Amino acid sequence: MKKTNRTFKRFAAITSASLLAACAVMPAVSSAANITITKGDASIPFASHTFEAYQIFKGDLDEKTNTLTNITWGSNINSSVFINNLQFNATDLGISSIADGASAAAVAEVLADITAADNAKLLAKIVNDSLKPVDDAAPATSSNGVIENLATGYYFVKDAENSGTDSGDAKTRFILKVTDDETVEIKTDAPSLVKKIKHNETDEWGDVGDNQIGDTVEYYIATTVPDISDYDTYKYIIRDDMEAGLTYSGVTKIEYQPATAGSTATTLWDGTGTPSNITITAADDSSTVDFVEDFYINFDLKSLNLAAGGTIYTYYSAVLNGGAEVSSGADDDKHNDNTAYLTYSNNPNQSGSGNTHSTNDTEEDTVYDWTYTFDASKVDGSLADKPALAGAKFSLYEGDSETAMSLVSAGTAGGIDYYRIATADDADEDKITVITTSTTEGRLATFRILGLDDDQKYVIKEIATPSAEYNKCPDVVINKLTATYDTVGTDLTALTASITQGTNENANASNSVIIENNKGSVLPGTGGIGTTIFYLGGGAMAAIGGVYLISKRRMKKSEE
What we know:
This protein is mainly beta.
């Protein structure tokens, strides 16, 4: 008996701690004890967590030492099945063999040779695989995080099979000595994901960006690293989906930032070569219904050995392509979405390769990229009703460039001709640099340019008038498009343009302009020669007259 008592005291010293927190020694004895489960400063979503308590061993309590003696099997435990499972897993666990029909004390002696963490892993596997209480009696379960009315003994506690499966949640397990009411702090540690887009004018990261069609758009995904010490293997997979207007370019850099204040980020991959313990896969396929991935990244966190609480930053880019959604004004919701979420292991009670392990997903996070339109209408300004005027030719310039931008025809609708900013994927034969206004087939001599960036200067130049009788109009300078969104970034509440047309500057209430062509002679201020020739001629005649008078006076003086 002395040996048995010493052995179990040894086992108790190892297994009395939870995997997460040591249990306080309680001198008092209670015939019906409770286990209260907490989670530090965070709350447990008890609506989605049910904890099961299995009494593995029971015994007599020595009040002086707060240890158990006269060890016997716990209530409702099928000892033969329990021993059989221990025998089956003995090699993997590194424990000595256990004889058939071994006593509870003998089994406790074997289990004392492995750590509390390994005991919990072992018991989790046995319970999950085949250990059932005698006569299918249910284990004790929690209500609101409290498991009530437990007899003295050693308990294995874990999440029930369907517990802890909500998004952003995870299961837990621990082994615990119960002699009186106990409180344990557990970890149901789960990672999180945040996604951001870079605003190309400010270089700030946020939920909304805007670009010109053909631009490269920059993103990052930040995912936290959970405590995975309880797991044999751990899934950690970023899944990213882009709408049709975005073309995935590739991951450019992956960094790890420890949680410690003042710590320096570590580069996990610099964008060159093949990353170690990280698999990046471009894919138009998915194992998840209704989520077609453009790429996914599988991190081997166990091999990367990153400290819990830190953050992995994954930087990548895409191109805003010719199929991008384009917004034309207030209340427009045509944006180009990029959505990501993280798939992660949620059950430490499983072992093995992890290929079939249960997982949870974080909430999806979406960011939005916008691009805009601008309309120009050509009219005959010499007529009172200013009808649409066909045959004028225009080119579009970016900033102060003297090279016209390449465009492609995007069709006609509602009498408006559509032209989109060309991209590298457009065929050269489809690219044009000249827009010609038309009134045929019901067209309004109006053209709409698709795919402009805000905060960018554009110039519309008339390079040919409809005919020689018309005067060329001044350049239309779009100094800036200004977009305003709702708080989420999914709706455009306003789109205005600051426009300079010749010397007349005005802030338009919308992103459009009317361009007039006029007939007839032009006053000097508009560039025509006007009456200048008469001024020059009159001046010349006055000069000649002055010379004649001076010469005549000199001749008269000579004669005198």
